[in-house]
TrEMBL record:
Record's keyword terms, sorted: Membrane, Transmembrane, Transmembrane helix
Name by which UniProt lists this protein: DUF2812 domain-containing protein
InterPro entries linked to this entry: DUF2812 (IPR021359)
Keyword Transmembrane: yes
Pfam families (UniProt xref): DUF2812 (PF11193)
Length: 183
């Protein structure tokens, strides 16, 4: 079954819930294709939990000890290869302890995972700041004369990018506070 939904790499927790709901409805995630397009296949309806892990290398380059560690804990690797995003699944039936359904079940590792997720969310914002910043810098250096519309457009784009960066900086600060208050 083709899905018209795409992987939202900035909200992986919501995607985990979506995959679980689909599996409960009888559709297992088969593939995450180009540009994050999701493909499901019909399966027996059961309660299966999906969890993401973020790695710097692609799934095919992971060492066997890494994968074996998760398999020993009852997790199965879902064969996808999407920008260093690794996906595991595990049956939830008969598991009473909710921490057994988490890959990161201690505060330190969960904090590192969420911090890495935030940094990955922040990267496009930093990269997209380069275009308006460079355009304004070049115009100022070359003493180019532009109308108010031109300056207003680039100014609004730059302001929106700065607000976006401020938003993610605040989220990272709040994340640190929440984990520091637990310890």
């Amino acid at each position: 079954m083709k899905s018209y939904k795409y992987l939202d790499a900035y909200h992986l927790d919501k995607m985990e819930s979506y995959f679980r709901q689909m599996h409960q409805a009888g559709y297992a995630l088969k593939n995450i294709g180009m540009m994050g397009k999701l493909t499901f296949e019909a399966c027996k309806a059961e309660d299966v939990v999906y969890r993401f892990d973020l790695q710097k290398q692609a799934a095919m380059d992971l060492n066997k000890a890494y994968i074996q560690t998760y398999q020993d804990a009852g997790w199965a690797l879902v064969p996808i290869d999407y920008q260093g995003v690794i996906l595991f699944k595990k049956g939830a039936a008969g598991i009473d302890n909710p921490s057994e359904l988490e890959i990161y079940n201690d505060d330190a590792s969960r904090f590192e995972y969420e911090k890495l997720l935030l940094r990955r969310s922040l990267t496009p914002g930093i990269v997209s700041l380069i275009a308006p910043g460079m355009q304004i810098y070049i115009s100022l250096i070359n003493n180019e004369r532009h109308g108010a519309l031109w300056w207003g457009l680039w100014g609004v784009i730059l302001l929106l990018e700065l607000l976006w960066l401020l938003y993610y900086w605040k989220k990272l600060r709040d994340l640190k506070k929440s984990y520091l208050s637990r310890s």
